[in-house]
Design goal:
This protein is mainly alpha-helical. The chain has helices spanning 3-26, 32-44, 58-81, 86-92, 96-108, 114-137, 140-163, 168-177, 180-190, 193-201, 205-230, 235-238, 245-257, 263-280, 298-301. It starts with a helix and ends with a helix.
Length: 305
C-alpha cells in the first residue's frame, strides 16, 4: 500500500475507534434508541439522493438494515447507556468476527480451519476475561447487550456476504434508510415521546455534533473510505487495520472519559485482538463452490460502530 493509503486506513480505524467515545457523549443528550435513529436518518439524508439507486436486491438491504441498524446498534446503544464503558465496548464488539465465522459454518456450510477454530477459542477466552473485569467493576447487563449486538452484527455480515454489494458506500447509505422508522417506533414505545421530545427540544451544538460525527464520520466517511481501499487492495491487506479500532477506542475513552484500563482489560484486549486476527484473517474451507466468495472480505467490509 502507498503511504497515503496506509494513512487513510489508519484514519478510518481512528474515526471508528473514537466513535465509541462520541457515542458515550451523545447518550448524555439523547435516549439510546432515538440517538441511533437520528444517526441513520442523518447518514441517509441527503446522501441517498446522491449515490444512485440500490445495486443489490431490496431483500438484502432490508435484512441488513434490520440486523445491523435496528438490532446491532439498538442493543449497542442501550448497552452503553446502561453502563457498558465505551472503550470496553469497542473491544468486546470485535467478537463479531467469531459470530460471523460460527454463522458461516451453520448457514453457509463453511468448514473452519484449525487455526480459525483456535482463534475463536482465544477470542472467546478474551470475552470471558473481559466479563470478569466488567463484573468486578460494573453491571453485566450492558456487557451482555454488547455481546448480543456483536451476534447481530455477525448475522448482518452473513447477509452482506450473500448480497455481495459492488459499492459498499451505496449499500450502506441505502441500508441506513431502513432502521430509521423502526428505531423511532421502538423509541416512542420504550423510551416515551416525552423523553424524545425533551431531547430534541434541548438539542445543543455538542449533541448535534455527536449525531453528525456518528452519521457522517463513522458511517459515510468510514464506509466510503474503507470501500475505496478495498477496491484498490486485497481484503487481506486492508482487514488488519480494523484491529486498530479497539486500540483507538480504549485510548480515546481513557483520554477523554477517564475510563480506566485495568490489567484484566489489557489481558482481555490481547486475547480478543489476537483471537479475532486468527479468526477473521484466516480463510475457512468452503463446503461448496458457491460459499467461498468474499470469505474473508467481510471483516474488512463491515467493522465500524
Amino acid at each position: 500500500m502507498r503511504p497515503a493509503h496506509v494513512f487513510l486506513a489508519v484514519l478510518v480505524a481512528a474515526v471508528w475507534g473514537v466513535n465509541f467515545t462520541v457515542i458515550e457523549v451523545g447518550l448524555d443528550h439523547f435516549p439510546p434508541l432515538l440517538f441511533s435513529a437520528l444517526r441513520f436518518l442523518v447518514a441517509a439524508l441527503p446522501a441517498v439522493f446522491l449515490v444512485g439507486p440500490p445495486k443489490v436486491a431490496w431483500k438484502w438491504i432490508v435484512g441488513v438494515g434490520l440486523a445491523l441498524g435496528v438490532a446491532k446498534f439498538g442493543l449497542l446503544f442501550i448497552g452503553m447507556d446502561v453502563g457498558m464503558p465505551g472503550g470496553l465496548s469497542s473491544l468486546v464488539l470485535q467478537v463479531q468476527a467469531v459470530f460471523t465465522a460460527l454463522f458461516a459454518v451453520v448457514l453457509l456450510g463453511e468448514r473452519p480451519t484449525r487455526v480459525r477454530v483456535a482463534g475463536m477459542a482465544v477470542a472467546l477466552a478474551g470475552i470471558g476475561v473481559a466479563a470478569v473485569d466488567e463484573g468486578a467493576s460494573g453491571p453485566l447487563t450492558g456487557f451482555a447487550l454488547v455481546v448480543a449486538a456483536a451476534a447481530c452484527w455477525g448475522v448482518s455480515n452473513i447477509l452482506t456476504r450473500k448480497a455481495s454489494p459492488p459499492d459498499s458506500l451505496n449499500f450502506m447509505i441505502w441500508v441506513s434508510t431502513v432502521p430509521v422508522l423502526p428505531l423511532l417506533a421502538l423509541s416512542l414505545l420504550l423510551e416515551g415521546w416525552s423523553a424524545d421530545l425533551e431531547a430534541l427540544r434541548s438539542l445543543d451544538w455538542p449533541g448535534a455534533g455527536t449525531v453528525l460525527y456518528v452519521a457522517w464520520g463513522a458511517t459515510v466517511f468510514g464506509f466510503g473510505a474503507w470501500g475505496w481501499l478495498l477496491h484498490r487492495h486485497p481484503a487481506s491487506t486492508v482487514a488488519p487495520f480494523s484491529l486498530l479500532v479497539p486500540v483507538f477506542g480504549m485510548t480515546s475513552a481513557a483520554l477523554f472519559l477517564d475510563e480506566s484500563i485495568t490489567p484484566l482489560r489489557w489481558c482481555a484486549a490481547a486475547l480478543l485482538v489476537g483471537g479475532v486476527a486468527l479468526t477473521s484473517l484466516t480463510p475457512g474451507s468452503p463446503r461448496g463452490t458457491g460459499n467461498s466468495a468474499s470469505n474473508h472480505d467481510e471483516p474488512a467490509r463491515v467493522n465500524s460502530a
